[in-house]
Amino acid sequence: MSDKYPALETIDNDLTSTEPGKEFDSDFLSREKELLGEEFKTDQDADVLNGSDDDDINDFKEQFPEVDETEAERQEQAAAETEAETADEGFNGSNDNHLIQGESEHLKEWKERRELEIEKREQANAKSKQDIVDKAQKTIDDFYDNYNNKREQHTKEVLKEQEEFLEKRDGFLKRGTLWDRVNELVGEVGEPTADENRDKTRFKGLLTKLKGKENVPGAGGY
Q1: What gap in Å lies between CA 36 and CA 65, rounded to an integer?
Q2: Hey, where are the domains in the chain?
Q3: Would you place residue 13 in the very low, low, confident or very high pLDDT band (cuts 50, 70, 90)?
Q4: InterPro entries given for it (predicted)?
Q5: What number is the average pLDDT over the span 58-63?
Q6: Percent helix, strand and coil across the chain, each rounded to 5?
């Protein structure tokens, strides 16, 4: 009987031997087991002693996680995603900048070649245009030179012929009588064309008789 129900001093000693700061409820089952022995032991004691409460608490925490922890994890995940996106954007941006820079270099070279070709083409066109203008100007100058030369030459020839004609005329009028000059002109003109209806033999004979006679009518020219 004494084994099952120990003395009060023993209980007091057990109570006083408890470590300071240790709560009474935490060792309740242990003390009951020491006092009552194996009779008080049940199947649920192992679960309680082994931390079944901890399992329930862990299940509760898994189903209902703490807000601060979830928020921290979400922030960490968002920060990681943002960092990855930033790195990706930086990589893509660097590639885009490299491509844009490459395209800019090629575009710059193409523009320089195009401007050089345009400049050469304009120079060639300007030279060709100037050659055409020079050739046209030379043609016009040659035309006017030839025209002026020919005109001057023609004028000289006309004046010369005029002088010769006037000189010949004056010399002709100074020779002999009027009838002498008429006979000379008839001789230069030649024999008249024969006309069946008219006979000019008598007229020609009359002119021949008047030749060399200064006292006949009209011999002086009036």
Answers
A1: 41
A2: 8-64, 88-170, 175-222
A3: low
A4: Clathrin_L-chain
A5: 65
A6: 80, 0, 20
